[in-house]
Amino acid sequence: MNEQTYWQAVLEHNREYDGAFVYAVRSTGIYCRPSCPSRRPGREQVQFFGQPTSAEAAGFRACQRCHPQLERPPEAQLALIEQLCRRLDDPELPAPTLAELAEQFNLSPFHLQRTFRRIVGVTPRQYAAARRLERLKATLATEETVTEALYDAGYASSSSLYEHTQAQLGMTPGRYRQGGAALAIRYTITPCALGFLLVAATSAGLCAVRLGDSPAALE
Fold first, then answer.
1. Would you identify the CATH topology of the domain 3-62?
2. 77, 181, 190, 193: least buried by Cβ within 10 Å?
């Protein structure tokens, strides 16, 4: 925890840090979001906590103005996540490291990763990898060669493609492009809350997960 960075966020009422931490005021016994509009206390009165539950365990009460105990992400954080996703979705740009992404959006790597994972459910790296794989599946069906498909999808080289995707595709990219021809593919269809779920796999790994309204629509 970088307390100097957090204190600066408190002084600036910085909404981008809402959800990353809360600050408590010893003289009042109340804890707040960084963006709380209340008057700023002296630095010597402030204590930082990573979670509202930690502040409450230490005996502090939630502020009735900013409601720091509520889980719903502020609109500013949702807007930030949308910008991050657009950056990670762009196949024309090289995949950034967490540090590069944090610098671009003027955030700490810890805060960026924590906020992204809390709202999206995965880390920025996992999100970027999943989106790149989806682009690869689409381009393998349309491009003339696997090489063209991998560069269009945003892979830097063929070695990075084969290193990371064979288990995710359940086969080599070339075989996937051929529709898994001459490859033993086992699948099952099961009912689920959203309709029916098809899961297919080869000996190398999963090759398809699909949702449909009926088993016939998935076969």
1. DNA Methylphosphotriester Repair Domain (3.40.10)
2. 193
